[in-house]
Amino acid sequence: MTIDRIVFGDNQFFGINHMSQDKAQERAERFAKLDNVMAVYDHAIEAGIEGIMLNSNDRAKGICDRFRAEPEKYGHLRWYPSIPYPHKYASMVNDKGMVGAVQEILFAQGAKSAFGKMLKGGMAVATLDAVKLMKMLVDQEMEIYHDLDVRVVFLQNIIVDLMLGYDVAEPFVAYCEHIRKKYGAYPGLITQNLPFLRRKLIEWGIEDVVICASINKIGYLQSPGVEEYEAVLAENDGEKYPIMAMSTLASGAVPAPEAYEYINRLNVQSVVFGASSPGNIKQSVSLIEGAPA
Rounded CA gap, 159 and 276, in Å? Predict the structure, then answer.
């Protein structure tokens, strides 16, 4: 399995900064304009990045539309969607309840496949068929990325780690099979507990899955901790379970040269990072590639 060594993330565009609310607000205001978002993507592409991770948030469709509109400029890019956008679902559940939220999502596209969705969705809701509902919700999210070269579809850690707690293989098997068959892509799982997820995937016989996890030298968003992660990475088969490192700078707590010197010593196949200035983007690419910054 081959994935991009470097993937460009999107937290910087949506007011996400785990260490500084002021920085998060400043970025949210700056990137309220789509032109400003696209300018940063252009800087990333100029720096040699060809892989894009994009969460299925409320602005993702507009961003994807801009990429689709210029295939001669952006058609070479490889995409790594991460689904679902948890805040969207949490708000719907609070407003409409679980069943109402599911119906709202499934039938939100109006006339587009409305009859088929009504039949399948109504039956799934009525019978509480969890696997059928999961597939339909995945398909709803993935409509955002149509006609893009999707390589891996990541399931967000809020879902992955919750399902892990039930210690049941079926949801993971069903998700992975659906992504492979429907989208011709690799399934991806985001987690805050890499050792446990990998152990369960091996136990359940689920292979060829990309695992994305926070990996940094101070253990930020890593459970149980740095030593356990390093032990798992040292023995991991990167063909069966390619690892994509995120939160490598620990939300700014670790300087980039120090962070990537650490990452490059580990058995990590890919790195996803976000940055908003041309200088920081170029520096990160250079450091991840192991070249002098």
Answer: 28
Q: State residue 124's pLDDT score.
A: 46
99 half-sphere exposure, CB direction, 13 A CA radius: 8
Query: Which run of H or E residues covers position 272?
Result: strand 270-273
Whole-model pTM: value is 0.87
Residue 156 is part of which domain span? 6-86+129-287
Separation in Å, CA 163 to CA 8, 118, 119, 157, 159: 27, 27, 27, 9, 6
Helix axis angle for 86-106 and 130-142, nearest 10°, is 100
The residues pairing with 191 across neighbouring beta strands, listed in sequence order, are: 213
- Say if residues 152 and 117 touch (Cβ distance below 8 Å): no
Is residue 41 a contact partner of residue 79, using CB atoms and an 8 Å limit?
no
Any domain includes 292: no
**115 contacts 174 by C-beta, under 8 angstroms:** no
Give a yes or no: residue 185 inside a domain: yes
Nearest CA to 194 out of 175, 221, 154 is that of 221
Q: In Å, what is the CA distance from 138 to each residue of 73, 74, 106, 203, 253?
A: 28, 25, 10, 25, 34
User: Looking at residue 173, which CATH number applies to its domain?
Assistant: 3.20.20.100
Domain assignment of residue 105, yes or no = no
Q: What is the CA radius of gyration of the chain?
A: 19
Backbone angles phi, psi at 66, to 5 degrees: -65, -40
Sign of the Cα pseudo-torsion (291, 246, 168, 152, in order): negative
Per the structure block, which two tokens stand in for 193?
A: 């507990």
- Ramachandran quadrant class, 128 (left: phi over 0; alpha: psi -120 to 50; beta: rest): left
pLDDT digits (tens, 9 = 90+) for 94-132: 676 655 655 565 555 543 444 444 445 454 444 447 788
How far is Cα 162 from Cα 139, in angstroms, rounded to an integer?
A: 21
Q: Are 265 and 32 in contact (CB under 8 A)?
A: no
Q: How many residues does the chain have?
A: 293
**Cis check: omega of the bond before 171, within 30 degrees of 0:** no
